[in-house]
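Dear Dr. H.,

I hope your travels went smoothly. While you were away I took the liberty of generating a structure for the chain from your last submission, since the lab meeting agenda had it listed for discussion. I wanted you to have the full record in hand beforehand rather than looking at slides cold. The sequence, exactly as received, is reproduced here:
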Amino acid sequence: MSRISTTDIAALMTRFWKSTRWIALLALVPILSGCSDRWGWYVVNPTTPSGWTNLTFLMSGLWYTILLSVTAIAISVVLGLLIALPGLSKNPLLRAFNRIYVEVVRAPPILVLILWVYYGLPQAADIQISVFWAGVVALALSDSAFEAEIYRAGIQSIDKGQYEAAQTISLGYTDTMRYVILPQAIRRILPAMGNQFVYMLKMSSLVSVIGMQELTRKANELVTAEYRPLEIYSILVLEYLVLILVVSALVRWLERRLTADEARSK
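The corresponding predicted structure, in token form, is as follows:
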């Protein structure tokens, strides 16, 4: 992959701003709307000390949301590959293991899995687990089943001639996967993996039920203090919207770079 220059980053940010500038205008609604009996935008008005304090409090959960999601997706991507490979084996026992894992893990709702990991796993395994790692384990475990299916579909989409070509130069199974199959498969499954990362960012909000101080938990606490759910949750929607749009733009940009690099290498 070619080196990423500052010009590329600037062009990416310019395109992103042109596509999302309406969000900035929408964010001005609290200031332009004023207050009435039904609207209390003053609670998130950045021009007042209390409004700025509330906005800062809401944004303080952003770091935990990103850290939780990135950690979970990193683990699930690796675990998903390890689960996918047995499903491609000729051994029926390995294929059965893959199928059982995928069906069992992706069956429970993520909220139920979060509650089980945080409250049930310490009793079952006699261990202590923090709120953060309970969220990471639950999200990564759930997503690994979907990642495994994405990997399996991507690897199976590679032409069989690639395997035969690798055999002609005496590459073993591990080297064939590492140097020939997976690089091609990853280019094809990158959009699906990007969608899973977006999905993970959204599902991270469910970890608020066990006390994780991420964006949704911060919003819930502020609603309890200010009694203004409409205004505060509207800001929460904007936070997630901007975050998801940024991630989606980065994934599309990376996909274009990989496609361009692949075209130049041919």
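Two observations you may find useful: The mean pLDDT is 83. Residues 62-212 form a domain with the MetI-like fold fold (CATH 1.10.3720.10).

With kind regards,
E. W.
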